[in-house]
Amino acid sequence: MPWRSRKRDPRTDPDRSTRRASGKGNLSTADEELLRTLYAEHAGPLFHYVLRLTSGDRQWAEDVVQETLLRAWQHPAAFDPARGPARAWLCTVARHLVIDAHRARQARPTEVGGEALERAVEQTPGEDEIEQALQSWAVADAVRTLSPDHRAVLLETYYRGRTMVEAARVLGIPLGTVKSRTYYALHALRLALQERGIEP
Fold it and tell me: Are 78 and 96 in contact (CB under 8 A)?
């Protein structure tokens, strides 16, 4: 049913906006007709359009279509033929709703799954600190197994945060030697940690 063929134009019905603003009263016949017309003419194509926007999430797409049609019912002036086709307005509103929902999801922190929350509840207070202390001791023990040259290079480059050039200057050795000792020291440290059951 075309928009202009209705007997009573809901855009010019003064009682409709009053009822909607106050939240009182039932839908008038014109409102029911407008909702039925909107749904019949646009819900199917709009749903397929929104389904692509939501990457196949049917529930989200249904929610967006419902909200879009509700906004269309709240703003009947948007369907003035001079403003363009009704479906273009509906698609624009739907696209904006999807964009807004996507932005809202990005703005809030990532939700943690149930397993992580259960593990956090099951942990006794201080368990993390104990685990970290044990791991620190194991790492210190593994570092002690390295040769003095390898320990010195790792101390300068990793613990003191110096660049390779700075470490070479402090240690008084060539840059190439610092690079090769760092490589072999990390390899030896990785093996020592694996022997202690720690995956680097």
Answer: no
* Of 45, 62, 50, 43, nearest in space to 95 by CA: 50
pLDDT of residue 110 exceeding 70: no
Distance CA 132, CA 101 (A): 40
- Integer Cα distance of 32 and 71 in angstroms: 15
Q: What is the pLDDT of residue 124?
A: 58
Distance CA 8, CA 2 (A): 13
Owner of token pair 């003035």: 80
Nearest Cα residue to 147 out of 103, 197, 188: 188
* 3 state SS of 98: helix
pLDDT digits 0-9 by tens, 136-179: 888 888 889 999 999 999 999 988 889 999 999 999 999 999 99
pLDDT at position 102: 85
pTM of the model: 0.42
Q: What DSSP letter does each residue of 126-185 carry, written as one string?
A: THHHHHHHHHHHHHHHHHHTS-HHHHHHHIIIIIS---HHHHHHHHTS-HHHHHHHHHHH
From residue 142, alpha-carbon distances to 48, 118, 177, 179 in Å are 60, 33, 22, 20
State the chain's mean pLDDT as an integer: 78
**How many CB atoms are closer than 10 A to CB 172?**
6
pLDDT (0 to 100) of residue 170: 93
- DSSP state for residue 1 in the 8-state scheme: -
* C-alpha–C-alpha distance, residues 153 and 195, integer Å: 22
